[in-house]
Amino acid sequence: MTIFVIVTYDVNEKRVNKVRKILKKYFTWVQNSVFEGEITYGKLEKCKRELFSVIEKDEDSVYFYEMEYKIVCNKKVLGQEKNYDSIIL
Amino acid sequence: MTIFVIVTYDVNEKRVNKVRKILKKYFTWVQNSVFEGEITYGKLEKCKRELFSVIEKDEDSVYFYEMEYKIVCNKKVLGQEKNYDSIIL
């Protein structure tokens, strides 16, 4: 069973690429500081453990907005819909 | 009736403060590029109209993740939970 998750982050420049490399394994990179996607609980916990070992807890900030069903979340776009998945880190 | 909305943005430096000033009227500034909060449909549409007049449609990107009930969205924090509401723009 998968859930839908939006991940946003505010991380020091020194660590941001490490965080993005981890998130790219699990989610789609949809905006400069935003990833989203459907994921199993098991993989979500694995992703969090990897991030936890990389971020600086008292400085960096990562939010996981978790929803049981993607359908409950209606995404509207103003301006450009971006996709950075093709960027190699 | 209010809905719960997460707003994320990737906007050119020249326009980002204008965007933030508008969003601060309607939402809570919870991370560098993220606002969130509960809002009526009427005010949400008003907020979007104001943003639409400020952003550059073919360059800037603003996402509205809209959910009927806040309870469907479970927010988890890794590291710091930030709040920029006290910042004067």
Automatic annotation (TrEMBL), chains A, B:
InterPro entries: CRISPR_associated_Cas2, Virulence_VapD/CRISPR_Cas2. One of its GO terms (molecular function) is endonuclease activity. Its cofactor is Mg(2+). It comes from the Bacteria. It is an enzyme of class 3 (hydrolase). The keyword Hydrolase applies. Keywords: Antiviral defense, Endonuclease, Hydrolase, Magnesium, Metal-binding, Nuclease. It holds the Pfam family CRISPR_Cas2. Mg(2+) binds at residue 10. Its EC number is 3.1.-.-. Belongs to the CRISPR-associated endoribonuclease Cas2 protein family. CRISPR (clustered regularly interspaced short palindromic repeat), is an adaptive immune system that provides protection against mobile genetic elements (viruses, transposable elements and conjugative plasmids). CRISPR clusters contain sequences complementary to antecedent mobile elements and target invading nucleic acids. CRISPR clusters are transcribed and processed into CRISPR RNA (crRNA). Functions as a ssRNA-specific endoribonuclease. Involved in the integration of spacer DNA into the CRISPR cassette. Homodimer, forms a heterotetramer with a Cas1 homodimer. This is CRISPR-associated endoribonuclease Cas2. The lineage of its organism: Bacteria, Bacillati, Bacillota, Bacillota incertae sedis, Caldicellulosiruptorales.
